[in-house]
Amino acid sequence: MILHPGSLADIAGLAVGHHTLAARPSGCTVVLCEQGAVCGVDVRGAAPGTRETDLLRPDNLVEQVHAVLLAGGSAFGLDAASGVMRWLDEHGHGFAVGPVDPGGPSDRPIRVPIVPAAVLFDLWLGDARVRPGADSGYAACAAARRDALAQGNVGAGAGATVGKLFGIERAMKGGIGSASLRVGAVTVAALVAVNAIGDVIDPQTGRPVAGARTADGCGLLDSQAALLRGELPARALAAMATTIGVVATDAALTKAQANKLATMAHDGLARSIRPVHTMTDGDTLFALATGGSGCPGEMTVLGALAAEVTARAVLNAVHAAVAASGLPAARDLAPPAR
Length: 338
Prior knowledge:
Structural class: alpha+beta
Number of helices: 5
CATH superfamily: L-amino peptidase D-ALA esterase/amidase
Distance between the termini: 24 Å
Shape: globular
Number of strands: 16
Largest sheet: 9 strands, mixed
Strand content: 25-35%
Number of domains: 1
Order of helices and strands: EEEEHEEEHEEEEEEHEHEEH
């Protein structure tokens, strides 16, 4: 069930592709911007797994990227970016770094595709030796679409879980979600793979909709309320979570503005995940700006829209998810009474 309309594919010039592994719940999702898009990033979690994020600093050389990859598999999943690079290279996309390639077509310059990436930890479910690789990244590119995209237990959200603060056995199924907003001539959209250690909260009600369950497994605990009551988790394992995503706009932004947009989009995670940005999360958001609308970015407005659409994408992710590996989804449990 999708609560909020739209998706990242509503941004002209972007295509989104999923690849979901058959052997266990895991996979990867790619956002293609083959002709290049300005990109920024903000890494807030304390246990990140990332690639090419230093390149996105405003004072570094490359201005545009050609894809962004989100993947399961923990650090192993970063290998999927090699497959994305291979697909882009075969199709002639990348940063021109030299003269004509003497081994290729006479009119083809040497190009290096720029593919930032972030991964989440989903090795809890199934055989941990099975994880996305280069072939998965390539397959996600081949499957990329510029229209409505699947949400829930697909791609980078296939093995995502939420509410792990009190142990994986009391967690629930997460997933990947997307949403978009259009105000005037500008569209802002988000795509988020929700794999948080905390609970997913509906910002309108302040109540959890998916997260840690009560000891009997039949209801929602509300992790934040439990912490405030003095109920502490028995243990917290490093690298057990991470929410990753992409926020995008068709406004024209500089690299510095794209980085700021990624920062402001994290407010959407703070509204919809509790607790968030923890020591065992590697929460990372990328921001893409295509400039397709021809409108310059007004950062206060864009930031407000980015936060809102990110929160909506988080809610869509858990409402679209279905039970897997013995973990229920949001549709299976009623929220706690107040």
